[in-house]
Amino acid sequence: MVRVKHRYLLVNILYPEPSASPSSSSTAVSKTHAQQSQLRIHAPTSDALTPSLLARMIRDEVAEIFGDWGIGRLGGVGAGGVSVKYLSSATSTAIIRCPRASYRLVWTALTYMDRVPEINEGGKSGRRGGQAPLTRPCVFRVLRVSGTIRKAEEEAVRRARREIVRLRAMDEVGVLGVLVGGLERGGGGDLAIVDNKDDNVEMDSGGD
After folding, report:
1. Who's near 192: CB < 8 A, 6+ residues apart?
2. How does pLDDT run across 113-167, given as a tens digit for each residue?
3. Which residues does 106 contact at the CB level (< 8 Å), separation at least 6?
4. Which residues contact 86 (CB under 8 A, 6 or more apart)?
5. CB 132 within 8 A of CB 48
6. PANTHER family from the entry (predicted)?
């Protein structure tokens, strides 16, 4: 019997919003603005985005782009070729399983998907049966493609810890800027944040 091999895509849902740069040149103000922007980009996702809804959105997008051929590559409309094994609305992170031979189709579909359900003022989705409207702009970013779900989970934990450390560092630099910014303003000693370079998508074949 032939074992069906899969790929696991670690996906992060981002919410980039264009905003004007702060008019003040103060270091403390700029650091606070950078921290707020980081929090907005990594904002939570509505609870209306369920694993079944996300899987259906991916299949619909594959059908829209590649037609019946793409759906056939995923295993058909009624088959479980694409499934969401993990979805966290708090961290906007998902792990998607798909056939190994078709993971690039799923990746392409995620690239073109740009809407998720909106969060109401009360923090809830407000969904009462049926599918919530997809009105909130977003970007689906594939962070890692792995042959095992364990590697995807480890990468998700590592990135979450790194984001916490980064935000804490930005907060500490902002506080120090308020305390010593006045003394060093004329001497060119402004504190600066060293931003990490954008991470490339990592490929891991796992045990295959």
Report:
1. none
2. 999 998 874 445 445 456 778 889 999 999 999 999 999 999 999 988 887 887 7
3. 9, 58, 62, 74, 82, 96, 98
4. 93, 94, 95, 149, 153, 156
5. yes
6. RIBONUCLEASE P PROTEIN SUBUNIT P14, RIBONUCLEASE P_MRP PROTEIN SUBUNIT POP5
CA-atom Rg of the chain in angstroms: 21
CA-based nearest residue to 117, from 14, 54, 48, 15: 48
Higher pLDDT, 33 or 76: 76
Residue 198 has pLDDT above 50, yes or no: no
pLDDT band at 53 (very low <50, low <70, confident <90, very high): very high
In terms of Cα–Cα distance, which of 200, 176, 146, 106 is closest to 5?
A: 146
Contact 115, 134 (CB under 8 A): yes
Token pair in block for residue 198: 């954008």
CATH class of 6-182: alpha beta
Pairwise CA distance, residues 171 & 174, whole Å: 5
Going by C-alpha positions, the residue among 108, 99, 118 that lies closest to residue 47 is 118
User: What pairing do the DSSP bridges indicate for beta strands 202-204 and 139-146?
Assistant: parallel
